[in-house]
Amino acid sequence: MINRKSRDEIKKMIHAGHIVALVHEKMKEVLEPGISTKELDNYAMKVIKENRAIPTFLGYNGFPASICTSINEQVVHGIPSENAIVKEGDIIAIDVGATYGGMVGDSAWSYEVGKVSPEVHKLMETTKESLFAGIEQMKPGNTLDDISKAIEAVANREGYGIVRQYGGHGVGHVMHEDPFLYNYSVGDKTLIKSGYAIAIEPMLNLGGDDVFVGADEWLVSTVDGKPSAHFEHTVIATDDGPIITTKL
């Protein structure tokens, strides 16, 4: 069942999303060649705690950190580590969740570390474009498939792979609520209603669609070893248009 959020719940989600956005601002500030993903996690935890929120990811199904850090061909769910050092030319997807007043904000952003290749930069910009194309469709009366088709159209235009095992999801009282949102069209005619909150999150690959889960049972990477980009915002449908809770 898809839960419609009340005015009070939306207010709390906007506050939670603001805290997530503050974490991403901190990530942009400190991210540079030579930093470890564990250091990034420490910075994120500090921002979340300073804002009297709870790191949503920490302990979620046993996840041991407050953010996910996924580098280059790593798609999603990377566990921060002192041994994972970002270097010039890398891209890194940082996924952040914060809970405030019992409500969740969830957002991922991919970052370039120094100068990346033109083809990787284009992948990043196109994935971001696909996110906002999806957000534009988050309106009462549209369907979930309208969002999926908008994301897929941008990916197909450039010939990028679409991660098919993972996608967007309802969000609110917990990180994953109904519905599941595909990043490609499956004909889902579920109508979007005012008060629906969905984390829209395209993951596009420079190569093929296929991904696999690593030995730690968390990290997802591309099978062909080519880079992947991941962008996500928490979005609430309203009669006045979509509200993006996770941006400053």
Q: How large a portion of the residues is in β-strands, by DSSP E? A: 25-35%
What would you call the quaternary organization? single chain
The largest beta-sheet arranges its strands as 8-7-9-14-15
CATH architecture: Alpha-Beta Complex
Report the span from N to C terminus.
30 Å
Structural class: alpha+beta
Name of the CATH superfamily: Creatinase/methionine aminopeptidase superfamily
Mean pLDDT: 98
CATH class term: Alpha Beta
Number of structurally distinct domains: 1
Helical residues, percent: 25-40%
Number of helices: 4
Strand segment count: 15
* CATH T-level topology: Creatine Amidinohydrolase
Radius of gyration: 17 Å
- Element-level helix/strand string: HHEEEEEHHEEEEEEEEEE
- What profile does the largest beta sheet have? 5 strands, antiparallel
Structure characterization notes:
This protein is an alpha+beta fold. The chain has one domain: Creatinase/methionine aminopeptidase superfamily (Creatine Amidinohydrolase), CATH 3.90.230. The chain contains four helices and 15 strands. The strands form four sheets. It has a five-stranded antiparallel sheet with strand order 8-7-9-14-15. Strands 1, 2, 4 and 5 form a four-stranded antiparallel sheet that branches. A three-stranded antiparallel sheet has the order 3-12-11, with no helix packed on it. Strand 4 and strand 5 form a beta hairpin. Helix 1 packs across helix 2 and helix 3 packs antiparallel against helix 4. The longest helix has 24 residues. The radius of gyration is 17 Å and the shape is globular.
